[in-house]
């Protein structure tokens, strides 16, 4: 069995600015995002961690480094944890997408398996399959250990609903806060959820 702490990265300017679709754009943390990363790093310093992995995008790496530091660990990056490719919607807010192509956006939200995001981006099952492949590999690499993984909002939500065998379109009903902590265990190819989107570390 491998225990995973799955985190969303800290705040970026695009999160703050009407929650723009960041996707593959390499946006750094804001000052608030850095504080959030430090807070979650301090919180998790009280728990045993054996490894820390992150998306290669700087916002995830920065957050992961704050988590790894108290444990004396080095962050390993994996491209399979990168945020969803939003295609032509990259950098736009939801109201902007609605104004430009509201019907296409609605169709994608209802059927993200067959319709790629932003016409040229990824589908939900493409995201789920690459994340699942990554986490399965990590579970084999770290048996009976605890691993922190820092990724992104849409990636984490799609992985969550997929692991629960829920329809992929339902991922939009989950809200994961910046540096929110979710906990699940991987055992014999089954996923058991223990906690979802805890923000206790941000209350101080």
TrEMBL record:
Transmembrane segments: none annotated. Substrate binds at residues 8-15, 59, 94. GO terms for molecular function: phosphatase activity. SMART domains: PGAM. The active site is at 9 (tele-phosphohistidine intermediate), 83 (proton donor/acceptor). Gene3D superfamilies: Phosphoglycerate mutase-like. PANTHER family: BROAD-SPECIFICITY PHOSPHATASE YOR283W-RELATED. This is Histidine phosphatase family protein.
